[in-house]
Hints:
Layout: E1 2-3, E2 9-12, E3 15-23, E4 30-36, E5 42-45, E6 60-61, H1 68-79, E7 88-92, H2 101-107, E8 111-120, E9 123-130, E10 132-133
Parallel strand pairs: 1-10
Antiparallel strand pairs: 2-3, 3-4, 4-5, 6-8, 7-9, 8-9
Amino acid sequence: xxxxxxxxxxxxxxxxxxxxxxxxxxxxxxxxxxxxxxxxxxxxxxxxxxxxxxxxxxxxxxxxxxxxxxxxxxxxxxxxxxxxxxxxxxxxxxxxxxxxxxxxxxxxxxxxxxxxxxxxxxxxxxxxxxxxxxxx
Length: 136
């Protein structure tokens, strides 16, 4: 992982956005919020805190892939069936307000899309591997 010493900035739609990393209160999953780098106004919350409390249908949707990133993420999901695995984040993929956020985070080398999806009601979130060190 790449250490973060200065604020991370990505381009999302018409904004240069600073990223803020937090943890959701329930479950402790990683949260990513985007703020306008010019005026500090909130732009969007890129992540979601999936509800793993329902026993059916299973939360994860696997589309088998030969990509080593998929295999690593698949193992992490098996070890963490009731939460987003450590080192991963669930990114919203639905609605106009989230359009393009996954691509911006991937292009900015903040996350890598594993190809695994997590059910969130009638929508799906992308399970992504975090590529930056946010522990600093």
